[in-house]
Amino acid sequence: MGEIDHWHPVLRSDALRTRPVGVRLAGHEIVLFRAEDGALGALEDRCPHRGMRLSLGRVEGARLVCSYHGWRWSAEGRGESPGTPAMRPCARRYDVAERHGMIWVKRAGVTASFPYLEVDGWFEVGRLSHRAQAPLEVVLDNFTEVEHTPSTHLLLGYPAGRMAEVETRVAMTDEAVHVHNEGPQRKLPRVIQALFGIPDEARFVDSWITRFSPVHCVYDQYWLDPVTGERAGDALRIAVFFNPLGPEETEIVSLAYASVPPWRGLGLGALHLRLTRALVDVEVRRDCAVLAGLADKQPGLVGRALGRFDSALVASRRRIARIYRGEMGGPGSGEGAPVSSRRAPSGSNPLRSVGGPPSGSFRADRRGG
Ligand code: FES
Ligand SMILES: [Fe+2]
Is the pLDDT at 356 greater than 50, yes or no? Predict the structure, then answer.
């Protein structure tokens, strides 16, 4: 399997209206279009006639019309040349689907499970897209450890002086890596704390599962009452997909949800959702800014001085190579990478188990693909 063989969310549904739109994924340039009856098409964004970008064309009925000589293309890739009706040209097509308010594509004909997001009972915060100037592995690294949150994030995460108190546990199966972090919440503005219903001295839990077809993480973020240990306040569920655009460019697609209904009293719910969307946007932008500043963007981990928060990086490398790229190890897989200081501080409860499915919110949906 290769990268393009997995379902990736490449465009918001509401960005595809009557005009075709060009997107990139894993070195492929793809034109998406919506026929007048609403059916979706995804073709190579290059006319087989003389190489025009089909994304500069227009939709007429069920056909995408090339802007250069007017050849007409169906969603199945069957072409017609108005000037040479006997011709039967073919364009390369991709499988395309629409779910969770996004357009998803993969290589035509290959079998791939569709990532299924459990969001029943959750309320949409937003669907966001950001671009990071770094390879997919290096971007995923940022999203699979919390040690950067005090210095990189604006609000979401742990306090700078208390990272040693944060417990981090990693569990893994052949198909997934589960990371669970719990520690003191960093100081928040009073208004945010009140809006989310977060008690003083609450503990913040940032727990996620990474899966690799395609590469994506599903985060559950919530707070615990410092006295009872019970959940307190609102919660977030955010699915983040990593789309490789090129060797050093990765699109980060965040599908964010919250436990807060928009109709919560006096418009506070709607305000909460808008603020949460802005917060997710700010935090991912800050992550992207940090990634742009890396002096070394090589995905290999060998020789790096990794700490106790970096265990998931090594595990993810191996699964990216095997599941996502269909390779057996290879450069950047992390084989043999030294991982130092894995031990959590005294008093914490490190768990690093192998086997058994991690609990979580994402599962393979065999109904798709
Ligand atoms: S290049 Fe598209 S019709 Fe000629
Ligand atoms: Fe981050």
Answer: no
